[in-house]
Amino acid sequence: MKAIILLLGVLFTTLVLPVWADSSRINNSQEVRFELQSVIDGLGIPWGLAFISDNEIIVTERGGTIRLLNVDALKMRVLKGAPHVLADGQGGMLDVAVPPDFRPGGWIYFTFVRDQDGEGVTVLARAKLKSGQLVNWQDLLETRSATDTGYHFGSRITFDEAGHVFFGVGDRGDRPTAQDLSSHNGTVMRLKRDGSVPKDNPYISRKDALSEIWSYGHRNPQGIAYDIKNRRLWVIEHGPRGGDEINLVLPGRNYGWPVISYGKEYWGPVAVGEGTHREGMEQPVKQYTPSIAPGSLILYTGSAFPSWKGNLFSGALKLRHLNRVVIDTQGQAIAEERLLEDLDERIRALAQSPQGWIYFTTDSGKLFSIKPVPNLVN
After folding, report:
1. What is the rounded CA–CA span in Å between residue 350 and residue 355?
2. Quick one: 24-372 is in which CATH superfamily?
């Protein structure tokens, strides 16, 4: 058994955590064998992950802490300069992401919930990392999403190849606002990386709509991924009781919530809205009934698992597994696989490392990695 060393002290901000003794096991999927390794434990609802180098990963915790972890040395420290967040219900410190062309010293992007006169709003911001501190903090957009509920804040971040950043906000527990273009509720937004609004956004010229909106009619998008090769924006979002959706998001389109849905009301077996289809509203590429409760989304692009390239991966909170969906060249979902069901963990955040390995967190405070099974040499 490896020794467990825990250094605690008021004056110290570095935490050293060992790999667990039973840290690895071999798993089989339909196409590949992989090794699951536990990396660290003891995090506080780790909500977001972003690699900023080959071996350094930023971890956000919903309670408001932002940490930097060296996954090789297993050394972790709290980063100074984090904003004050409203950690209430589903809100708090949310996502962290870096652009595909990120270099050390570049901008790191965050979403979090701010208290606005007793109500929560989702904020997109960015900062730079210098000597263990987040500096030059900039709020790019404080969304018009205030309600007094603790529900449906979103919010994940992704980037395209043309200098844009996308992120989403849920309906904030106020369903009709997802169809109201004067609110950011229930929308996916597109900005330039500096926070300015692109001139070709779909509602830039409409006085009755917010110019940041890219699409609307979303319930609670908690996963977003951009496919640079095919120039596709993917979103996965929570339905109510059933009807979680993967959507291929196009500019100016209405994704239907709460007018149409595949889900039922929580209080009984009654369909939400008027049905599953309506002219002028988009259909999902895939829907999940019963709900898996998706908490994240990545498009796998690495070389460590060649047969997974181009697949969508999502962490499932309610049904506790890693969800893999195969997408064909036309953008249709043609196969699904549910991995790590026996782990019995609410899988929250996902990240692909520069080596093509997959890292994920669980709501119980653990960080795991998925790596190829090493080749055995006789």
Report:
1. 15
2. TolB, C-terminal domain (2.120.10.30)
- Taking the domains of the chain in order of start, what are their residue ranges? 24-372
How many CA atoms lie within 13 Å of 35's alpha carbon, on the beta-carbon side? 12
Q: Which residue has the tokens 């969906």?
A: 325
Q: In what order do the strands lie in the sheet with 367-372?
A: 24-28, 33-40, 367-372, 358-362, 347-352
The Cα–Cα gap between 209 and 39 comes to 45
Predicted structure pTM score = 0.93
Task: Determine whether 152 is an active site residue.
Answer: yes
- Catalytic one among 152, 164, 238, 321? 152
Number of CB atoms found within 10 A of residue 216's CB? 28
Is there a contact between 365 and 46 (Cβ–Cβ < 8 Å)?
A: yes
In terms of Cα–Cα distance, which of 313, 315, 300, 291 is closest to 364? Answer: 315
Distances (CA, A) of 315 to 75, 198, 371: 25, 31, 17
CA distance linking residue 323 with residue 223, whole number of Å: 12
Pairwise CA distance, residues 313 & 324, whole Å:
5
Tens of each residue's pLDDT in the chain, 378 residues: 333 333 333 233 334 333 333 345 678 787 789 999 999 999 999 999 999 999 999 999 999 999 999 999 999 999 999 999 999 999 999 999 999 999 999 999 999 999 999 999 999 999 999 999 999 999 999 999 999 999 999 999 999 999 999 999 999 999 999 999 999 999 999 999 999 999 999 999 999 999 999 999 999 999 999 999 999 999 999 999 999 999 999 999 999 999 999 999 999 899 999 999 999 999 999 999 999 999 999 999 999 999 999 999 999 999 999 999 999 999 999 999 999 999 999 999 999 999 999 999 999 999 999 999 987 544
Helices (H), 116-223: none
